[in-house]
């Protein structure tokens, strides 16, 4: 069955009749109903395109999916069979899907026509969409060529037409790509034609002129995958929303970095270099502090039976330096690093018997201190090291 939404993607309201309304058996959490109508303007999910949203008699449509030749509408309330159904479409969502889907047809056709790479699948995502291509990668020049050609076609006001053929024996179908059509298919076949560019079988909703796609933007980073690659893209209003977010980011970064957008990269690289030098200097200073503290302890052991050292800004390098300097002593050594009220680390170096006795108690104490948790470092025993 070809639905009203597939015959005219621009229908925003529609009246029809309820054929059936039954409880959804598979839904155990909520009481929802599966409603079948004589016809619908709400597109059921399929062909890489998500379902439409909208209202039926003022009731929100939670989901629309295809079961055989029927479109099933999932509602939270019951509607009587035979009752009139007034449908209102979420037009903003629909038009966005139309822009992305027609844009995908355009891109897939251009990629195959220019470079011979076939589209194996695609997905209309919530933020950005992607096409899966039967090629290892796309070069920057190829991506630039595809984007330029797509936007030229959009500026050319190329018509987009819907053709519905009675069955697969129609001779005009020979001009269209019908890859994926089952051998046992019976009934009408719907084809989307972009004049002079593409003619392809499709179930989704589309614009009626490429000018309504407005613009196409391809992302330069292509994801490699087994047997192909993914090309990500935006069409229509999504391009302008993405540009708006980018401009907001530019504004925020300009304020943080005290420079204009053209200098952001240089400013960040300068900060990263300074940070690396500062971290290197900090590690060196912590290592020197560890040597000094270890020397002071060794020179003033007296009758000490236990050594405890804590440094708030210490790290693993600090701990290892302390252990290397004091590990040969015959008394237990506990080193802790990290803030008093936050996550940290500790190491206990002692005999196996002392580790077995003190280790669990220290772990329990550290985890309960100040509302934070100390991440335990594997406890060491002198016996196991020798």
Q: Please, could you describe this protein's structure?
A:
- By secondary structure, the chain is α+β, with helices and mostly antiparallel strands.
- The chain folds into three domains: 4-89, Elongation Factor Tu (Ef-tu), domain 3, CATH 2.40.30; 95-254, 2-Layer Sandwich (Threonyl-tRNA Synthetase, Chain A, domain 2), CATH 3.30.980; 273-366.
- The protein has eight helices and 19 strands.
- It has helices at residues 4-7, 91-115, 140-155, 237-257, 264-299, 316-326, 352-368, 382-385, and strands at 13-23, 33-37, 54-56, 59-67, 70-75, 84-89, 119-123, 129-133, 160-165, 189-194, 198-201, 216-218, 223-225, 228-235, 307-311, 333-337, 344-350, 374-376, 380-381.
- The strands form four sheets. Strands 1-2-5-4-3-6 form a six-stranded antiparallel barrel. Strands 7, 8, 12, 13 and 14 form a five-stranded antiparallel sheet that branches.
- The radius of gyration is 33 Å and the shape is elongated.
- The chain starts with a helix and ends with a helix.
- Residues 368-386 have low confidence and may be disordered.
- Residues 1-245 form the Alanyl-transfer RNA synthetases family profile domain.
- Its cofactor is Zn(2+).
- One of its GO terms (biological process) is regulation of translational fidelity.
- InterPro entries: Ala-tRNA-synth_IIc_core (IPR018165), Alanyl-tRNA_Editing_Enzymes (IPR051335), Thr/Ala-tRNA-synth_IIc_edit (IPR018163), Transl_B-barrel_sf (IPR009000), tRNA_SAD (IPR012947).
- Residues 363-386 are annotated as: Disordered.
